[in-house]
Amino acid sequence: MKNFSNRYMLLYSLGLAAVVALLLTLVATGLKSRQQANVRNEKMQQLLATIGVKCERDGVEPVYRQYFKQELNLARDGNKPLTIYLYEKDGQNGYVIPTTGNGLWGKVYANVALADDLNTITGITFSHDSETPGLGAEITSDAFCKQFVGKKILDDQGTVVSVAVLKHADPSDPHQVDAISGGTMTSNGVSAMLIDQLSRYQDYITSQRKEAHNDMPESF
Amino acid sequence: MNSNQKKLITNPLGKNNPITVQVLGICSCLAVTAQLKPAVVMALSVTVVVALSNLIISLMRKSIPPRIRIIVQLVVVSALVILVNQVLMAFVYDVSKQLSVYVGLIITNCIVMGRLEAFAMTNRPWDSFLDGLGNGLGYGIILVILGFVRELFGRGTLWGYPLFEKLGLYNIGYENNGFIIMAPMALILVGIIIWIQRSHNKELQENK
Hints:
The structure holds 2 protein chains of 2 kinds.
Chain A: H1 6-50, H2 60-67, E1 68-73, E2 83-89, E3 92-102, E4 107-114, E5 121-128, H3 142-146, E6 164-166, E7 176-178, H4 184-199, H5 202-215
Parallel strand pairs in A: 6-7
Antiparallel strand pairs in A: 1-2, 2-3, 3-4, 4-5
Chain B: H1 3-10, H2 26-31, H3 36-60, H4 69-91, H5 93-99, H6 101-105, H7 110-120, H8 125-155, H9 163-167, H10 183-200
Helix pairs in contact in B: 1-8, 3-4, 3-7, 3-8, 4-5, 4-7, 7-8
């Protein structure tokens, strides 16, 4: 075996590190705009999917503009952003609330589409950073998402109670859906995310519903 | 390609399989095989990484000081994996999302380091490339078998297609076996594959 001097080893490792760093930097910066466009388009695509509009990722932007009219930030100064999207589809107005929470291995996300009453769920989409494929990652499946449609997030008093993800849920209960088998931790994370995040919109929901109520004619 | 080089590819598929004989790369093979599709994509990614890192390390092998060889190997493997991940994210975004964290974990897959140490450090580039290809495929074939069995019996689908539902099996009282999609069952399945392989191949059995 050849004998290598310390000087050689030091220079060798420095040289290797420099070459690899340069290569990765070039690739990362070269591909960055493409990757960011992917992420941005996917976000629009997901918001559209939440309201039941299927669309290819390329050319998603004009479609998005067609449905989504407004993006409101309800947060007061200094608080975390509190975004709500206003959309119009088939003459019906509605809202989409984006939520973020913790799954088992990383972040999980959901977009909750609500009808004009800010209570009935008309659609929901999930995504995640690193849940286990085939187990927790199943939250993105149609079968799981479909369960949410028609569920209510408010109780009779108008308080946000969200929808719980449970084992052996009662399908007739407007606040329960079935959890993923083998994905209990992720399901619990989704459950906690929905109640935590939707509760932050309580004030907005209450005021909007009051307004809608006042608009109704006296005789109603 | 001479007969020795052919063996570099065929041996890891059978009597020198990285999973069932060398028992390497078990962790990821339990984690990604609950469904067929991620199993196939993972198999392809690992094959690409093992083959290319074997090739690169073999090209560099005479200049690598033995005392820092593990670090050098690790740097090359990590760079390749990051490169693969960046390319996946830019061009096949959906696949990269599907694999999520497991692409990064290829770096820690024992098969990659194992082949670099055992083969690429002492063999010529083309042979090393073939050896990497063979081992990647040997790993992949077990992943695909596991993914096939687990998806079919665990959830009654194949590549997402609801096969058992279309066959009407649920109507005659069949139920999916939820245990199969859990990691422990994957380990048991690997054990069964090892058992079958050893009972057919006397060479692999230890002397009492």
